[in-house]
Structure formats: structure tokens, C-alpha cells
Amino acid sequence: MVTIEREGREGDDPLPYEGVWRFTAPAVDASVPQARHAVRDLLVRQGVPVADDVVQGLLLIVSELVTNAVRHAALLSPVLAVEVAVGAEWVRVSVEDNHPYRPTALETDHGRTGGRGLLLVREITREAGGACEVEHTASGGKVIWAALPLKPTRLP
């Protein structure tokens, strides 16, 4: 089961849908659809004014990032964390694990059936006019995040 916690936000009066929510899940295959559903339900419950194509992109990003954590980090990180941060004009999803390996986007190899998840995340993010990054955490693990504008800004 996924438990979502909301973190406080300082500053001016936030919009009703602004905030940061974080949940943890075991690094197992069943966590992939659970994380996707939790993010979708959170966006709906908070009334985030996000375009349908942005939601679909975010859900695909969550699926890819959680799948990568399950496949590649579970041995050293049996628990992963998913965070959703919503601002006035953007939404950011991130997946954190305790594995020290920092992945890079692999070149597309049409002979391989896998290994393109981070490439897909970067492409979805770029097309939406957002940003994504892989960062080390203070505990020696990593967090991979993608931030998309609430309203799509497709690149030509």
C-alpha cells in the first residue's frame, strides 16, 4: 500500500493545488502501476489544472522511472521514494533510490528490447517544454526528476 504525505510550503499563499507529496514503495514490479495510479489520483484529488497530454506524459515518466529503480536498484535499495511537487505553472515528479549508480540516457539500439527508459523520459520532457535531471542524494543514492509545464508548450 502507498501512503502519501504532504510536505509544507513556505512563502506567499499557495494556490489550492500547490504542494509537495512524497510516498515510498517497495522496489518490486507491483509498485510500478501503484505509483502511476497514486500520482494520477493525487493530481485529480488536488484539482491540478493539468492538460490531459501532460498527465499522460507524467504517468509514462513515473512508470519508466519506477521500473528502472525496480530493475536496476532494488538489490541495494529495497525501497524507493516517489515525490510529486506542484507549483503554479508546473508539476515535477521524481523517483529516488539508494543505489549510487547514476544512469545516462542510452543511445537507441534497435536490436535491443530494453534500455530506452531514460531516453523516453528525456524525450517526453523535451517535447513538453520541461526539464529533467539525474542528481546524487546526500545519502549516496540518486534522484531522477522531470518537471513539465501544466499547460503543454510543444517544441516545433
Automatic annotation (TrEMBL):
InterPro entries: Anti-sigma-factor_SerPK (IPR050267), HATPase_C_sf (IPR036890), HATPase_dom (IPR003594). One of its GO terms (molecular function) is protein serine/threonine kinase activity. Signal peptide: none annotated. It comes from the Bacteria. Keywords: Kinase, Serine/threonine-protein kinase, Transferase. Residues 26-145 form the Histidine kinase/HSP90-like ATPase domain. CDD domains: HATPase_RsbW-like. This is Two-component sensor histidine kinase. The lineage of its organism: Bacteria, Bacillati, Actinomycetota, Actinomycetes, Kitasatosporales.
